[in-house]
Amino acid sequence: MAASKALSHIELSDWISLAQNKSPTRFIFATTTQWESILADANLIGIWIDLHSAGLALISLHTEPIQVIGKSAVRRANELLEKSRAFAAATTEVRRFYPPKDSLKGSNLVDKLAINGLRFGRLVAQCAKEGWDESTWANAKRHAQISDASARQLEQELGPPNIGDPEDRIYRAIGIREDELETGTGLTFAARLAAAWEKIHMPTKGAYASNPSTSSTPRLHSLPKLVSTSSCCC
User: Fold this and answer.
1) Burial (CB count within 10 angstroms: exposed 0-12, middle 13-18, buried 19+), residue 99
2) In terms of pLDDT, which residue wins out, 154 or 210?
3) What is the 3-state secondary structure (H, E, C) of 143-200?
4) What would the pLDDT profile of 38-95 be if each residue is shown by its tens digit?
5) Which has more confidence, 21 or 180?
6) pLDDT over 60 at 145, yes or no
7) What is the longest distance spanned by two Cα atoms in the chain?
8) Tell me, what's the pLDDT at 168?
9) Side-chain half-sphere exposure of 65, counting CA atoms within 13 A
10) What is the C-alpha to C-alpha distance for residues 73 and 199, in angstroms, rounded to an integer?
11) Facing residues of 29 across strands?
């Protein structure tokens, strides 16, 4: 009850506006590879876990002794709001993209995760503010369960992420694969990358060889700006 008194002055309007936010219009078409990269970069599952953990941290005050509640109630409520906003921002960004037909299931899972995750955050805040109402908490748990199920299915759709390797990041940015970076074309990763870029985009015969003002030239000149040689290894 002490935690509820500490939270009684907090407005629920922020959570309500987040939970009622309409789904953005999907207007950016993405390929299967791009869609997988978008989901991996967004880390929706990790952000949902953060939101869920913040909700449980606030609810746990119900069983805390009155001596330890103090400012914890307001701090944990603010953390829940912060995680709710981060979750809303991440899901909104992903939902701007229109995936190919073979990835529509993943798109629907993102929608379910977004809607139910934000409702969970709002209901947890409402439950704490209004004296740990059992029906509100039961409703919050229901939305958490739906979000958990959506996150697990989305994880299965994604498969194990593989975005940590430098070559993967370069391929997503400029379209050069790891097997195109020959080990003998330079002493550093940056040199091998530059050699691969020149091999693909700067042919030795034809108009590109005779005309240095073609569109490939400034892109090649910009390549060193994309890769820092100081952080590359042999």
Assistant:
1) buried
2) 154
3) HHHHHHHHHHHHHHHHCCCCCCCHHHHHHHHHCCCHHHCCHHHCCCHHHHHHHHHHHH
4) 999 999 999 999 999 999 998 888 777 776 676 788 888 899 999 999 999 999 999 9
5) 21
6) yes
7) 80
8) 54
9) 2
10) 61
11) 98
Decide: 121 and 18 in contact? Cβ < 8 Å.
yes
Give the confidence band of 174 by pLDDT, cuts at 50, 70, 90. low
Residue in 152, 172, 161, 36 with CA at minimum distance from that of residue 99: 36
Amino acid at site 102: D
Q: Which two tokens mark 27?
A: 């207007």
Do residues 113 and 147 lie in contact, with contact meaning Cβ atoms separated by under 8 Å?
yes
114-138 as b/e: b if 16+ CB within 10 A: bbbbbbbbbbbbbbbbeebbeebbe
Structure tokens at 208: 């590109």
